[in-house]
Amino acid sequence: MSHPTRPTRFARRRFWLVLPFIVAQALVGRSAFAACGTTKVVLQAGGGDCNTIQACVDLIPATLTGDYCIDVQDSATYAENVVVQGRTNAGYTISIGPFSAQRPVLDPPSGVGFRLNQSSVNLFGFDIAPTNAMTHGVVIS
Q: What is the pTM of this model?
């Protein structure tokens, strides 16, 4: 009589390491927008709070008092390097991405596209398509 194959200890461990990321992606997606205490809108052509992603990142207060969202509401190509750092999260999160069906593109001039030197940052919904040489699309430290 054959016994069903049981997952190896490594396979089980890998599942439990990956599961939080799957759950986080499902929770962060479009529904996170409703939970934001503050939302800033990026529209490259104008009409939002900022014309660039970095300009809205620069508006994030030094200490968060609620979840902070940056909603990129177009599918434009943003030629910039985006750096998130130096904020005190105080238990809150920063979410950056399109909260709609848009698909913005980041085309960094050089170096790193997104540098997240900050805890509790959710980044989603971007295509990174460099026309110049770059070292990394996203660096988290």
A: 0.77
